[in-house]
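JOB MANIFEST
job_type = single_chain_structure
chain_count = 1
residues = 271
[input]
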Amino acid sequence: MLNQSAVADQAKQQRPGGPLLTMCSVGKTFPNGTVALEDMSLTIGKGDFLSLLGPSGCGKSTALRLISGLSQPTAGRIDWTGGVPGAGDIGFVFQEPTLMPWATVFDNVWLPLRLKGLSKARVREDVMNALERVHLEDFAGSYPRELSGGMKMRVSIARALVVRPRILLMDEPFAALDEITRFKLNDDVLQLWQEFGLTVVFVTHSVFESVFLSDRIVIMAAKPGRVFAEMKIDEPYPRSEEFRTSDAYAARCRDVSGKLHEAMWGLEAPA
Protein backbone atom coordinates (compact mmCIF):
# COMPACT_ATOMS: atom_id res chain seq x y z
CA MET A 1 0.00 0.00 0.00
CA LEU A 2 1.28 3.47 -0.88
CA ASN A 3 2.24 5.83 1.92
CA GLN A 4 0.16 8.99 2.39
CA SER A 5 2.62 11.35 0.69
CA ALA A 6 2.99 9.09 -2.34
CA VAL A 7 -0.79 8.72 -2.55
CA ALA A 8 -1.22 12.49 -2.60
CA ASP A 9 1.40 12.93 -5.33
CA GLN A 10 -0.10 10.13 -7.41
CA ALA A 11 -3.59 11.60 -7.03
CA LYS A 12 -2.42 14.90 -8.53
CA GLN A 13 -1.03 13.06 -11.56
CA GLN A 14 -4.13 10.88 -12.04
CA ARG A 15 -6.71 13.66 -11.95
CA PRO A 16 -6.65 15.03 -15.50
CA GLY A 17 -9.51 17.49 -15.08
CA GLY A 18 -12.10 18.39 -17.66
CA PRO A 19 -15.73 17.28 -17.65
CA LEU A 20 -16.64 13.61 -17.38
CA LEU A 21 -20.37 14.14 -17.67
CA THR A 22 -22.87 16.99 -17.77
CA MET A 23 -26.48 16.92 -16.64
CA CYS A 24 -28.35 19.40 -18.83
CA SER A 25 -31.71 20.60 -17.44
CA VAL A 26 -32.49 17.07 -16.29
CA GLY A 27 -35.93 16.28 -14.92
CA LYS A 28 -37.48 13.10 -13.57
CA THR A 29 -41.22 12.68 -13.04
CA PHE A 30 -42.51 9.31 -11.92
CA PRO A 31 -45.69 7.71 -13.35
CA ASN A 32 -47.65 8.68 -10.22
CA GLY A 33 -46.92 12.35 -10.94
CA THR A 34 -44.17 12.83 -8.33
CA VAL A 35 -41.57 15.30 -9.60
CA ALA A 36 -38.29 13.94 -8.21
CA LEU A 37 -36.00 16.30 -10.14
CA GLU A 38 -36.59 19.45 -12.15
CA ASP A 39 -34.16 21.41 -14.30
CA MET A 40 -31.05 19.89 -12.70
CA SER A 41 -27.88 21.05 -14.39
CA LEU A 42 -24.51 19.88 -13.11
CA THR A 43 -21.05 19.17 -14.48
CA ILE A 44 -18.97 16.41 -12.91
CA GLY A 45 -15.26 16.64 -13.67
CA LYS A 46 -12.79 13.81 -14.14
CA GLY A 47 -11.26 13.02 -10.78
CA ASP A 48 -13.88 14.92 -8.76
CA PHE A 49 -14.96 13.77 -5.34
CA LEU A 50 -18.40 15.32 -5.40
CA SER A 51 -21.03 14.92 -2.68
CA LEU A 52 -24.76 15.40 -3.18
CA LEU A 53 -26.05 16.75 0.13
CA GLY A 54 -29.63 17.44 1.07
CA PRO A 55 -32.73 16.38 2.98
CA SER A 56 -34.74 13.24 2.24
CA GLY A 57 -36.85 13.62 -0.88
CA CYS A 58 -34.62 16.12 -2.65
CA GLY A 59 -33.71 13.69 -5.45
CA LYS A 60 -30.13 12.77 -4.50
CA SER A 61 -30.58 9.04 -5.05
CA THR A 62 -32.70 9.67 -8.16
CA ALA A 63 -29.85 11.72 -9.64
CA LEU A 64 -27.42 8.90 -8.89
CA ARG A 65 -29.67 6.34 -10.61
CA LEU A 66 -29.97 8.58 -13.68
CA ILE A 67 -26.19 8.90 -13.90
CA SER A 68 -25.83 5.13 -13.58
CA GLY A 69 -28.36 4.44 -16.33
CA LEU A 70 -30.61 2.46 -13.96
CA SER A 71 -33.30 5.06 -14.66
CA GLN A 72 -33.91 7.46 -17.54
CA PRO A 73 -34.71 11.20 -17.34
CA THR A 74 -38.11 12.45 -18.45
CA ALA A 75 -36.61 15.80 -19.44
CA GLY A 76 -33.18 17.08 -20.40
CA ARG A 77 -30.17 14.90 -21.12
CA ILE A 78 -26.93 13.55 -19.67
CA ASP A 79 -23.87 14.00 -21.88
CA TRP A 80 -20.76 11.87 -21.31
CA THR A 81 -17.33 12.92 -22.52
CA GLY A 82 -16.05 10.11 -24.70
CA GLY A 83 -19.48 8.60 -25.24
CA VAL A 84 -22.03 6.71 -23.18
CA PRO A 85 -20.26 4.46 -20.64
CA GLY A 86 -20.22 0.75 -21.27
CA ALA A 87 -20.36 -2.24 -18.95
CA GLY A 88 -17.81 -1.84 -16.20
CA ASP A 89 -17.41 1.92 -16.60
CA ILE A 90 -19.70 2.61 -13.64
CA GLY A 91 -19.38 1.16 -10.15
CA PHE A 92 -22.36 1.50 -7.78
CA VAL A 93 -22.32 1.07 -4.00
CA PHE A 94 -25.84 1.05 -2.55
CA GLN A 95 -27.13 1.96 0.91
CA GLU A 96 -27.14 -1.73 1.83
CA PRO A 97 -24.30 -4.11 0.87
CA THR A 98 -26.74 -6.31 -1.14
CA LEU A 99 -24.52 -9.37 -0.86
CA MET A 100 -25.57 -12.89 -1.84
CA PRO A 101 -25.79 -14.66 1.55
CA TRP A 102 -25.13 -18.10 0.06
CA ALA A 103 -21.91 -16.98 -1.67
CA THR A 104 -18.44 -16.43 -0.27
CA VAL A 105 -16.82 -13.01 -0.13
CA PHE A 106 -14.73 -13.97 -3.17
CA ASP A 107 -17.78 -15.02 -5.17
CA ASN A 108 -19.67 -11.84 -4.25
CA VAL A 109 -16.82 -9.71 -5.59
CA TRP A 110 -16.46 -11.95 -8.65
CA LEU A 111 -20.16 -11.44 -9.55
CA PRO A 112 -19.87 -8.46 -11.99
CA LEU A 113 -16.99 -10.18 -13.81
CA ARG A 114 -18.89 -13.47 -13.85
CA LEU A 115 -21.83 -11.66 -15.48
CA LYS A 116 -19.40 -10.56 -18.19
CA GLY A 117 -18.54 -14.21 -18.84
CA LEU A 118 -15.16 -14.22 -17.09
CA SER A 119 -14.22 -17.42 -15.25
CA LYS A 120 -13.15 -17.51 -11.62
CA ALA A 121 -9.70 -18.78 -12.57
CA ARG A 122 -9.16 -15.98 -15.06
CA VAL A 123 -10.05 -13.16 -12.65
CA ARG A 124 -8.75 -14.62 -9.38
CA GLU A 125 -5.89 -12.13 -9.19
CA ASP A 126 -8.19 -9.18 -9.93
CA VAL A 127 -10.67 -10.23 -7.26
CA MET A 128 -7.96 -10.78 -4.67
CA ASN A 129 -6.41 -7.41 -5.51
CA ALA A 130 -9.79 -5.73 -4.96
CA LEU A 131 -10.16 -7.52 -1.62
CA GLU A 132 -6.65 -6.50 -0.62
CA ARG A 133 -7.52 -2.86 -1.33
CA VAL A 134 -10.32 -3.04 1.26
CA HIS A 135 -8.25 -5.13 3.72
CA LEU A 136 -10.35 -8.29 3.34
CA GLU A 137 -7.94 -10.60 1.51
CA ASP A 138 -7.97 -12.96 4.52
CA PHE A 139 -11.78 -13.26 4.36
CA ALA A 140 -12.15 -14.39 0.74
CA GLY A 141 -13.63 -17.72 1.82
CA SER A 142 -15.96 -16.27 4.47
CA TYR A 143 -19.72 -15.79 4.13
CA PRO A 144 -21.63 -12.53 4.70
CA ARG A 145 -23.18 -13.86 7.92
CA GLU A 146 -19.67 -14.07 9.38
CA LEU A 147 -18.88 -10.39 8.72
CA SER A 148 -19.57 -7.17 10.58
CA GLY A 149 -21.60 -4.40 8.96
CA GLY A 150 -18.47 -2.46 8.04
CA MET A 151 -16.85 -5.54 6.51
CA LYS A 152 -19.95 -6.23 4.41
CA MET A 153 -19.77 -2.68 3.06
CA ARG A 154 -16.09 -3.20 2.23
CA VAL A 155 -17.08 -6.25 0.18
CA SER A 156 -19.61 -4.11 -1.66
CA ILE A 157 -16.92 -1.51 -2.39
CA ALA A 158 -14.52 -4.21 -3.62
CA ARG A 159 -17.24 -5.55 -5.93
CA ALA A 160 -17.70 -2.06 -7.40
CA LEU A 161 -13.96 -1.54 -7.84
CA VAL A 162 -13.11 -4.91 -9.37
CA VAL A 163 -14.39 -3.74 -12.79
CA ARG A 164 -12.06 -0.70 -12.66
CA PRO A 165 -14.87 1.84 -13.26
CA ARG A 166 -14.52 5.32 -14.69
CA ILE A 167 -16.89 6.64 -12.04
CA LEU A 168 -17.91 5.30 -8.63
CA LEU A 169 -21.41 6.13 -7.40
CA MET A 170 -22.07 5.75 -3.66
CA ASP A 171 -25.59 6.10 -2.26
CA GLU A 172 -25.31 6.77 1.50
CA PRO A 173 -23.17 3.66 1.94
CA PHE A 174 -22.21 4.31 5.57
CA ALA A 175 -25.45 5.73 6.98
CA ALA A 176 -26.29 2.62 9.03
CA LEU A 177 -22.82 2.17 10.52
CA ASP A 178 -21.49 3.33 13.88
CA GLU A 179 -19.42 6.50 13.94
CA ILE A 180 -16.04 4.82 14.45
CA THR A 181 -16.58 2.42 11.53
CA ARG A 182 -17.91 5.26 9.40
CA PHE A 183 -14.82 7.39 10.04
CA LYS A 184 -12.54 4.50 9.12
CA LEU A 185 -14.43 3.79 5.89
CA ASN A 186 -14.35 7.48 5.00
CA ASP A 187 -10.55 7.34 5.30
CA ASP A 188 -10.43 4.19 3.19
CA VAL A 189 -12.66 5.59 0.45
CA LEU A 190 -10.46 8.66 0.11
CA GLN A 191 -7.38 6.49 -0.22
CA LEU A 192 -9.07 4.30 -2.85
CA TRP A 193 -10.22 7.42 -4.75
CA GLN A 194 -6.67 8.66 -4.86
CA GLU A 195 -5.00 5.33 -5.62
CA PHE A 196 -7.38 4.45 -8.47
CA GLY A 197 -7.72 7.99 -9.86
CA LEU A 198 -11.50 7.63 -9.60
CA THR A 199 -14.32 10.08 -10.07
CA VAL A 200 -16.68 9.67 -7.10
CA VAL A 201 -20.25 10.92 -6.65
CA PHE A 202 -21.27 10.39 -3.03
CA VAL A 203 -24.79 10.83 -1.66
CA THR A 204 -25.06 11.74 2.02
CA HIS A 205 -27.27 13.44 4.61
CA SER A 206 -24.22 14.31 6.71
CA VAL A 207 -22.65 17.75 6.55
CA PHE A 208 -19.62 16.44 8.45
CA GLU A 209 -19.07 13.52 6.08
CA SER A 210 -19.47 15.67 2.98
CA VAL A 211 -16.95 18.25 4.17
CA PHE A 212 -14.38 15.63 5.13
CA LEU A 213 -14.59 13.71 1.85
CA SER A 214 -15.36 16.17 -0.90
CA ASP A 215 -13.61 18.68 -3.05
CA ARG A 216 -17.09 19.86 -4.19
CA ILE A 217 -20.45 19.71 -2.44
CA VAL A 218 -23.70 20.13 -4.34
CA ILE A 219 -26.49 21.15 -1.96
CA MET A 220 -29.93 20.13 -3.16
CA ALA A 221 -33.39 21.40 -2.31
CA ALA A 222 -36.65 19.49 -2.50
CA LYS A 223 -40.10 19.92 -4.04
CA PRO A 224 -38.92 19.76 -6.74
CA GLY A 225 -35.45 18.24 -6.37
CA ARG A 226 -32.86 20.60 -7.79
CA VAL A 227 -29.39 22.03 -7.30
CA PHE A 228 -29.57 24.82 -4.74
CA ALA A 229 -25.89 25.69 -4.41
CA GLU A 230 -22.37 24.39 -5.01
CA MET A 231 -19.55 24.79 -2.52
CA LYS A 232 -15.88 24.02 -3.09
CA ILE A 233 -13.88 22.48 -0.25
CA ASP A 234 -10.36 23.45 -1.22
CA GLU A 235 -8.61 21.90 1.77
CA PRO A 236 -5.59 19.77 0.83
CA TYR A 237 -5.52 15.99 0.57
CA PRO A 238 -4.79 13.56 2.10
CA ARG A 239 -7.17 14.42 4.91
CA SER A 240 -6.71 12.88 8.32
CA GLU A 241 -7.95 12.94 11.90
CA GLU A 242 -5.99 16.17 12.29
CA PHE A 243 -8.24 17.79 9.67
CA ARG A 244 -11.39 16.45 11.39
CA THR A 245 -10.46 18.26 14.60
CA SER A 246 -9.17 21.47 12.97
CA ASP A 247 -10.67 24.95 13.05
CA ALA A 248 -10.75 24.91 9.24
CA TYR A 249 -12.95 21.81 9.22
CA ALA A 250 -15.31 23.29 11.81
CA ALA A 251 -15.59 26.50 9.79
CA ARG A 252 -16.33 24.59 6.58
CA CYS A 253 -19.01 22.55 8.36
CA ARG A 254 -20.65 25.75 9.64
CA ASP A 255 -20.68 27.24 6.14
CA VAL A 256 -22.15 24.13 4.54
CA SER A 257 -24.68 23.70 7.35
CA GLY A 258 -25.84 27.27 6.88
CA LYS A 259 -26.32 26.80 3.16
CA LEU A 260 -28.17 23.51 3.75
CA HIS A 261 -30.46 25.32 6.18
CA GLU A 262 -31.25 27.87 3.45
CA ALA A 263 -32.03 25.06 1.02
CA MET A 264 -34.32 23.29 3.46
CA TRP A 265 -36.26 26.44 4.31
CA GLY A 266 -36.59 27.57 0.72
CA LEU A 267 -34.45 30.69 0.94
CA GLU A 268 -32.96 32.05 -2.25
CA ALA A 269 -29.44 30.99 -3.10
CA PRO A 270 -27.18 33.96 -3.90
CA ALA A 271 -26.43 34.61 -7.56
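[summary]
The longest strand covers residues 19-29.
The CA atoms of residues 180 and 186 lie 10 Å apart.
exit_status = 0
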